Amino acid sequence: MEMEDGPSGPVSPRTLRALTEAASKVAEAESAARDAKQAAESALELNRELVSQNDRLRSTLSSNVAEYADAELLRENERLKQQVLQLQTKLVRSQEVSLISAKVVDSRITYREGRQFVEYKLQIETNTRGTLYVWHRYSTFRNLAATLQTKNGYKRKEIPELPNKQLFGNFSEKIIQDRVAKLNQFLEAATNAEYLQWGIRVDQDTCVYKRRVKNASRDSISTASTHSSSPRSSSRLSMKSFSFRRGSTAGN
């Protein structure tokens, strides 16, 4: 028969096992508590990191949205500026450009399509576009001179005549300089004659006009009734004759 342990006697095996099991459970509980604490601390740390990452991401997204919006605004602003410039250009071109003076300031020998010819650089002072430049061949000036001298009924003495081309020597320096002098005499007379009106096409979008002064005397014009052309048709002829030729170049 097994003896019960007394209060002062040796511990029985049963009691020892119970104590051991109890100590083991306490140790397991303490270990579980430590693990739970570590897990909670890790969870808190992870949560803090996630919150921080979320804040950074939100800030980045906000910044990207702002930058995108700024870029869109800049593009739209640039587009509107271009539209305004185009409208301003159209407005300027729609306004008539008046000729103040015109003179030949340079010449050059040009080759095009196997042909050689001389072009003269015309400097045109205008009322709104400043100084414009355009290159024209000698024949273009002669066409205008012929129109002003004959088709409109003006006497040749009023407008200096431009000589015909020569068979030889058209490209010599002397001939070219003589033509420059004749051209400038012609242009000065055609510009100063208040009763004349004509135009110079500078480029596809620009034509400079020399208008007739109202009520200007035209003593040189024949008053005979044989002249059937109306002033309006005459002005159209003179403006059309001095046109911008294909192949000529212009600039301002």
UniProtKB/TrEMBL annotation:
This is PX domain-containing protein. Its main location: cytoplasm. One of its GO terms (molecular function) is phosphatidylinositol phosphate binding. Residues 98-219 form the PX domain. It comes from the Eukaryota. Keywords: Coiled coil, Cytoplasm, Endosome, Lipid-binding, Membrane, Protein transport, Transport. Residues 19-97 form a coiled coil. Pfam families: PX. CDD domains: PX_domain (cd06093). It comes from Phytophthora citrophthora. It is found in: Cytoplasm; Endomembrane system; Endosome. The lineage of its organism: Eukaryota, Sar, Stramenopiles, Oomycota, Peronosporomycetes. The keyword Transferase does not apply. GO terms for biological process: intracellular protein transport; vesicle organization. The keyword Cytoplasm applies. Residues 219-246 have a biased composition (Low complexity).
